[in-house]
Amino acid sequence: MKRRNFIIALLAVLLVIPIAVSAGPIQLTVAEIHPKDYPTTQGLFQFAELVKQRSGGKILIDVKYGGQLGKGEKKVVEQVQFGALDMARISVSPMTEFVPALEAFGLPYIWKSQESMWKVLNGEIGKRLLKAVEKYRFYGLNYYEAGARSFYNAKRQIKTVENLEGLKIRVQKSQLMLDLVNTMGANATPIAFGEVYDAISKGVIDGAENNWPSYESTGHYEVAKYYTLDTHTRVPEITVASRISFDKKLTKDQMALVKKAALDTQNYVIKKWNERVEASKKKVMASGKNIITELTPAAREGFVKAVQPLYDKYGEKHKAIIKELRAAQ
């Protein structure tokens, strides 16, 4: 009887006292459309490593690169907004649907240089717009470098804006980009990016516009030897997190740790991007067939003047932020 009573008492105690069970680390996922070796993807791996180190392994981030969670950035953003995905690295462009002021970042020749852009992004304006996404169930974590886009073609050297006259230039399916190229006197032709190489080589189009790494990695430099560094647009990337997911999974201190780690990878990505640009330049120049043109100040002014109608069309509602951007540089 005593043994039976002892067992009953022991069972009662065990039922009352909770047994400690390890919950394991918090798992977060971030989506990236670019391949593993791309600068922004490398930045996300660095981000994941910093979070793991600083949290003592309590927060782990899985980087899903190469479009594993969706090729289209708009669909990925929607997943983040509704909590189906924790984070994503995307272009600023899709975020303009939520924060219209971000449209100003994509206006032609709005930035004087890479350095001046980062001065603004890391300053009061950039911080304010990064926080503005919180109204739409996002947390803005950081900005990343995405380079500057310039014109290249197979027909002739572009030294002035007048030299673009009549050229068929491939653009993204964006009304702003269509208007930008047409305003300069060329003929904007929206086709899929993967079709550009064949389209230039077959004479369907004369050229396209993009950054150094894209010009080189796609092989476009092989069929379009004239590259003019007019740097008409310089649209940064942004990493956004789901407020629904973060508020559910992370404490305030953990959230602050993740946000700080994201910000601390910005300079790493800028460094990686600049290294990638130099590697692309070196490869292109090694071919000995390409003609790279840097605009004179007077020629650049001609390009800037040519796109002023776009500021009347797209910049009218952003006059205040445009004025701020220019003053802050």
What is the CATH C level class of the largest domain, in words?
Alpha Beta
Radius of gyration over alpha carbons?
Answer: 25 Å
What is the helical fraction, as a range of percent? 40-55%
Number of strands: 11
Strand arrangement within the widest β-sheet reads: 2-1-3-10-4
Q: How does this model look, in words?
A:
It is a single chain. With 329 residues, this protein is α/β, with parallel strands linked by helices. It has 2 domains: 26-146 and 235-264, Bacterial extracellular solute-binding protein, family 7 (D-Maltodextrin-Binding Protein, domain 2, 3-Layer(aba) Sandwich); 149-234 and 288-328, D-Maltodextrin-Binding Protein, domain 2. Helix content is 45%, strand content 18%. The protein contains 15 helices and 11 strands. It has helices at 2-16, 39-54, 73-81, 114-121, 124-132, 175-183, 196-201, 212-217, 220-223, 243-249, 252-263, 266-286, 297-306, 308-313, 319-328, and strands at residues 26-31, 59-64, 87-91, 138-144, 149-153, 168-171, 187-190, 207-210, 226-233, 237-242, 291-294. The strands form 3 sheets. It has a 5-stranded mixed β-sheet with strand order 2-1-3-10-4, with helices on both faces. Strands 8-5-9-11 form a 4-stranded mixed β-sheet. Helix 2 (39-54) packs antiparallel against helix 11 (252-263) and helix 2 (39-54) runs antiparallel to helix 12. The longest helix is centred in the C-terminal third of the chain and has 21 residues, at 266-286. It starts with a helix and ends with a helix.
